[in-house]
Specification:
Helix content: 25-40%
Number of strands: 20
Function: Catalyzes the interconversion of L-alanine and D-alanine. May also act on other amino acids.
Shape: elongated
Number of helices: 11
Largest sheet: 8 strands, parallel, barrel
Low-confidence stretches: 379-383
Organism: Egicoccus halophilus
Mean pLDDT: 97
Catalytic activity: L-alanine = D-alanine
Strand order of the largest sheet: 2-3-4-5-6-7-8-9
GO molecular function, one term: pyridoxal phosphate binding
EC number: 5.1.1.1
């Protein structure tokens, strides 16, 4: 359906391709591009294709449904599902050639049976809890799970992996400690008969950028693939990564107001002088944090303009001062306009959160436009 509002998210597949290639060069190993949560809000199918074109060998998602959506889009690359699904979903996974993560006894049993029934072992990635404390084989179950995996003729352990809890904190010892725990598991696995060729992966975005020892046989960048920083102290731009997303709209209404005029809910902002006020047709229902009230900025006519007053559900106001503004003028909330830029990292700082939350909270009612024409509003239906 053609969009009737000017608000849109513009996605650059060139930036994603560049980032995948840059991360592969930095890591010196294979890249598993994480495209869960609809490609971190960018559109999973488009960014998956771009990441593969940039050199990624594998994709990763959180849910079986996300993997099936990639298959429905015609993507046949290896897809790792990062969390165990309910066991009744396992036949669907196997039929779709999605690679399961395993850590529970019941999951291994079902996959072993499915592999024997089909006459082809099911390739799996065995996840180990080394200190994240979330999911994975806990140390108390290492021996039992290894015996089960080695004895199962209907499955094949292709990789062992873990997830790092504090890789985005360069000074923390936790990453080193977790890697040491994983080495203990691998030694235990070798003694139990785990094949020598099993691959190992541990590195999320932060570990890919900061911890060479974590890179192993492949890396699993998520947020870095989209050119965004995994933490305030880890600047993606410093590693040559490019943001792939631009949030754009147009001024829907403009007027000149006198000094002392209070605007929006709660009258939390008052005009400091006579000047121009612009209304934009998007708000927190589109994913603009209400925390940007009176602190966020918007680019209009190549200049940074402050958000004026409370961000509403469907609209927000921008103070333009002496500069005349008119309905139809382009407004950029995330991305570049002229020589200026608003970064996702700014939003995250204002909202006391992380870049991951900002982009995954941009809602579905904002259309994603992949590789729009370079001038103005796209003249084709959004995707």
């Amino acid at each position: 359906m053609r969009a009737h509002r000017p608000t849109r998210i513009e996605v650059s597949t060139d930036a994603v391709r560049h980032n995948a290639a840059r991360l592969a060069a930095l890591a010196g190993t294979e890249v598993c591009a994480v495209v869960k949560a609809d490609g971190y809000g960018h559109g999973a199918a488009a960014v998956a294709r771009a990441a593969l074109a940039g050199g990624a060998s594998t994709l990763a998602v959180a849910l079986v449904e996300e993997g099936l959506a990639l298959r429905a889009a015609g993507i046949d690359a290896p897809v790792l599902v990062l969390a165990e699904p309910p066991v009744d979903a396992l036949p669907t996974m196997v039929d779709a050639a999605l690679t399961p993560t395993v850590y529970r006894e019941a999951t291994l049993d079902v996959l072993d049976r499915l592999g024997r029934q089909r006459g082809t072992p099911v390739g799996v990635h065995l996840k180990v809890d080394t200190g994240m404390g979330r999911v994975g084989v806990p140390e108390a179950d290492w021996d039992a799970r290894l015996r089960q995996a080695v004895a199962a003729t209907g499955l094949r352990v292709e990789a062992v992996y873990t997830h790092l809890a504090r890789a985005d904190e360069p000074a923390a010892d936790t990453t080193r400690d977790q890697l040491a725990v994983l080495e203990r598991f691998l030694r235990r696995g070798a003694s139990a008969g785990l094949p020598a060729g099993v691959r190992v992966h541990t590195a999320n975005s932060a570990a890919t950028l900061l911890h060479p020892a974590a890179r192993r046989d492949l890396v699993r960048p998520g947020i870095a693939l989209y050119g965004l920083s995994p933490a305030p102290d880890v600047d993606a731009a410093a590693f040559g990564l490019r943001p792939a997303l631009r949030l754009v709209t147009e001024v829907s209404f403009a007027k000149r107001i006198p000094a002392g005029t209070a605007v929006s809910y709660g009258h939390r902002w008052v005009a400091p002088a006579d000047g121009w006020l612009a209304t934009l047709p998007l708000g927190y229902a589109d994913g603009v944090p209400r925390a940007l009230t009176n602190v966020g900025v918007v680019l209009i006519d190549g200049r940074r303009r402050p958000v004026a007053g409370t961000v509403c559900m469907d609209q927000l106001l921008v103070w333009c001062g002496d500069d005349e503004v008119a309905a139809g003028d382009e407004a950029v909330l995330i991305g570049t306009q002229g020589d200026e830029q608003v970064r996702v990292e700014e939003w995250a700082a204002h909202a006391s959160t992380i870049t991951y939350e900002i982009v995954t909270q941009l809602t579905a009612r904002v259309p994603r436009v992949v590789d729009p024409p370079p001038t103005g509003r796209p003249d084709h239906p959004p995707t």
